[in-house]
Amino acid sequence: LSLRTVNSSRSAFASFLFAPLFFQRYEAGGPQPDRELLRCKVLMKSFLGVFRSLPSLEKTVGKCLILLKPRASRLVVQLHCKYGVTKTHNLAFQECERLQAVFDTQRCASSLRAPARVLAEAVVHFPQTLAEVTLGAGPGGKISLQNYVEDEAGEPGGAGMMVTELQLAEDEFQTVAVAPGSRITFCLKEFRGLLTFAEASNLPLTIHYDVPGR
């Protein structure tokens, strides 16, 4: 079973894969020889609403049943609670399209790998309201993080604005293979969200980049 989502600007993509052994019971409805794998799309807000207040769900819900009903265009989620209470959520399908990120990490000239904690502690020094941050490879193998600012003429490095720069030594990373002098600028808010998830899951973070835009 796969769950995939993409943000409205299509700059961030997430995919979670669940093996059949993850579930107490798993009955796949396909594929048939002449049919594609079944897939559907539902509104994220509606789906997350079913599982809001996780501490409460853990105390009251014994099991969760998820059913796909293609003919009715419904994703049904049933929560079987204590005292015989069953809560059923019928989520309508949206117009479906394949959500899949297309990228080839083998073609990227630079890559970094580090524990999420290292990068999470680094971005703490930047204001919460900051929109973008620039990652660069400096002399001596040092990796720098710097806020990206523009002056009134639209040129980078705007005068009169506070610039924060943090340098990380190469030995703080698990692997470093970057092109000298390379720099990329990206959304700090999305990066913080990714770090929060990776740190909570105790996962390392791997960054692949080539030129701006890739």
From TrEMBL:
Component of the 9-1-1 cell-cycle checkpoint response complex that plays a major role in DNA repair. The 9-1-1 complex is recruited to DNA lesion upon damage by the RAD17-replication factor C (RFC) clamp loader complex. Acts then as a sliding clamp platform on DNA for several proteins involved in long-patch base excision repair (LP-BER). One of its GO terms (cellular component) is checkpoint clamp complex. GO terms for biological process: cellular response to ionizing radiation; DNA repair; DNA replication checkpoint signaling; mitotic intra-S DNA damage checkpoint signaling. PANTHER family: CELL CYCLE CHECKPOINT CONTROL PROTEIN RAD9A, DNA REPAIR PROTEIN RAD9. Belongs to the rad9 family. This is Cell cycle checkpoint control protein RAD9A. GO terms for molecular function: double-stranded DNA 3'-5' DNA exonuclease activity. It is found in: Nucleus. Keywords: DNA damage, Exonuclease, Hydrolase, Nuclease, Nucleus, Phosphoprotein. The lineage of its organism: Eukaryota, Metazoa, Chordata, Craniata, Vertebrata. Pfam families: Rad9. It catalyses: Exonucleolytic cleavage in the 3'- to 5'-direction to yield nucleoside 5'-phosphates. It comes from the Eukaryota.
